[in-house]
Amino acid sequence: MESYLSKKVVPPTESGGNNDARENKNNFAALPLGFLEELAQSNSLEDILLCTSYWIREIFQADRSSIALRENDAYLKLYALDGNDVLPKDCLIPIQSSFVGQVFSQQKTAISPDNRISNMIDCQWLVDGGLLCCMDTPLKYKEECYGTLNVAHKQVDSYNEIDAKVLETIAKWVAAQIYKHKQINKMIELAHIDPLTGALNRRAFVEATYFINDKPRQYDHKTALLMIDLDKFKAINDAYGHPVGDKVLIEIAQILKDSVRSDDLVARFGGEEFAILLRHVNSEEALRLAELLRAMVEQTVVEHQNQRIRCTISIGIALPIPTDQGFEELMQRADHALYVAKRKGRNQIILSGMTEA
């Protein structure tokens, strides 16, 4: 079978003469304009993968196309596919015993002309779905292999060396896009995530409160802000050193992150101060969570050189009130409540509006 790109289409010469020699020498391949246009309009890595899997199937007249990316040291995961779904999206494929795993590990394009005689597990799965031939190529950029780009067909011997070259070329471009998006995501993460604790940083946290700043009269009043400070944290740093202090911060941050819901926000404001923005809660629910956090931290032990280090937290809570003009007012009241909790002896919770004398 001859694929779309195996026809080696070349630009016409001015003379309009025979192009056979030039075709053989330059090996031109025509890409559909729709593919290029959709790639140019893709705004995310997911868009690129879905677009590529669709057009690769069209270009190679395949019965199935897919993209598998490295999930961990043992498995690849199917992130995009088009056509026959004998191996569904999100399917995990073992690297050690699969054809795509072999291509990924060896970082070399390979064709299985007849899957029926292959002992690779994914080739056997393809046969179960009526796909007798497959071709896979690594998604490699700058010495890093992200996964594989794959096509399969119902007929044996459907792909040849020219097809392999074309698939490799497209895979290199896709791999470059994966690299670009990973770099962009890394920069976004560096700009928004506290590198020590993995919580949001202050900038990202404040930006995420736009709904309070933009609509001060209309935003969700079932919101609670918790300002949290580790008690006497300086004493831990002075006694055990900053690496141990960092270990304590990481442990406390993990407790905070594990205790909230997916639509709540946890941030490290700097030093030993954290903030949590709870959505869709009333004061009783905010107080209940705050008490849970306080108790969990109080019971937490950080081991260091046969010593057991404990710490406590103080928490100030504020909920929106009609006079608030935005997030700053809410934060000021939560900060003041935290100050009162510290002044009253630490390891306690104060709700703004309670008796704070």
Explain how this protein is built.
This protein has 357 residues and is an alpha+beta fold. The chain has two domains: 4-186, GAF domain (Beta-Lactamase); 200-351, 2-Layer Sandwich (Alpha-Beta Plaits), CATH 3.30.70.270. Helices cover 42% and strands 22% of the residues. It has helices spanning 20-26, 33-41, 45-59, 99-106, 121-128, 161-192, 202-207, 210-214, 233-240, 242-259, 283-299, 327-343, and strands spanning 64-70, 75-83, 92-94, 110-112, 133-141, 144-153, 200-201, 223-230, 265-270, 273-279, 302-304, 307-309, 313-318, 349-351. The strands form three sheets. A six-stranded antiparallel beta sheet has the order 3-2-1-6-5-4. Strands 7-9-10-8-13-14 form a six-stranded mixed beta sheet. A hairpin with an 8-residue loop joins strand 2 and strand 3 (92-94). The protein is elongated, with a radius of gyration of 29 Å. The model is unreliable at 1-25 and 215-219 (pLDDT under 50).
Number of domains: 2
CATH topology title of the largest domain? Beta-Lactamase
- Which series of helices and strands comes N to C? HHHEEEHEHEEHEHHEHHEEHEEEHE
Q: What is the CA–CA distance across the termini?
A: 85 Å
Q: What are the low-pLDDT stretches, counting only 5+ consecutive residues below 50?
A: 1-25, 215-219
- Tell me the radius of gyration: 29 Å
Helix content: 40-55%
Shape: elongated
Q: In CATH, what is the homologous superfamily of the largest domain?
A: GAF domain
- Tell me what the CATH architecture of the largest domain is: 2-Layer Sandwich
**Which CATH top level class of the largest domain fits?**
Alpha Beta
Give the strand order of the largest sheet, numbering strands 1, 2, ... along the chain: 3-2-1-6-5-4
Major sheet details:
6 strands, antiparallel
Number of strands: 14
Q: Would you tell me the structural class of the helices and strands? A: alpha+beta
Mean pLDDT: 87
